[in-house]
Automatic annotation (TrEMBL):
It comes from Zosterops hypoxanthus. It holds the Pfam family UQCC2_CBP6. GO terms for biological process: mitochondrial respiratory chain complex III assembly. It comes from the Eukaryota. It is found in: Mitochondrion matrix, Mitochondrion nucleoid. InterPro entries: UQCC2. Its main location: mitochondrion. Keywords: Mitochondrion, Mitochondrion nucleoid, Transit peptide. Signal peptide: none annotated. The gene is Uqcc2. One of its GO terms (cellular component) is mitochondrial nucleoid. The keyword Metal-binding does not apply. This is Mitochondrial nucleoid factor 1.
Length: 125
């Protein structure tokens, strides 16, 4: 029975897309890591709580197949702020978040970081 559970999770991992814009914060990558941890011995892994395992699998399948998105369709593809889905994806991209983090730094902190890093020419003097 553990072998069939393992194969189902593997199939789900194969189908689950990864988002390159969310490096190290992607749900697909996280899912793959968790499945690898949970099934360390592959098909021979002993599952302590098969019911919880099945429930987790079913929940992930519902997320993957957009079950609730289809069950409860939205009238508009925007949020209460008026931001579209594409705008949200762009804002949540890792590169943009890094830029925003850099912008949050105060002037004093940025100057301190800039001048605290010694240049190679200064070390030779």
């Amino acid at each position: 029975m553990a072998a069939s559970r393992y194969r189902r999770f593997l199939r789900l991992c194969e189908e689950w897309p990864t988002e390159d814009s969310k490096r190290q914060r992607d749900l697909g990558s996280f899912l793959r890591q968790r499945v690898a941890q949970a099934f360390r011995e592959g098909e021979n892994t002993q599952i302590s709580d098969p019911e919880a395992c099945d429930q987790m699998y079913e929940s992930l399948v519902r997320i993957h197949t957009n079950f609730y998105k289809n069950k409860y369709p939205r009238l508009r593809d925007t949020t209460f702020t008026g931001v579209t889905v594409e705008d949200c994806r762009t804002i949540l991209a890792t590169d943009i978040l890094k830029q925003m983090e850099d912008m949050k730094k105060g002037t004093w902190k940025r100057l301190r970081e800039k001048f605290s890093a010694k240049k190679p020419e200064e070390d030779s003097k």
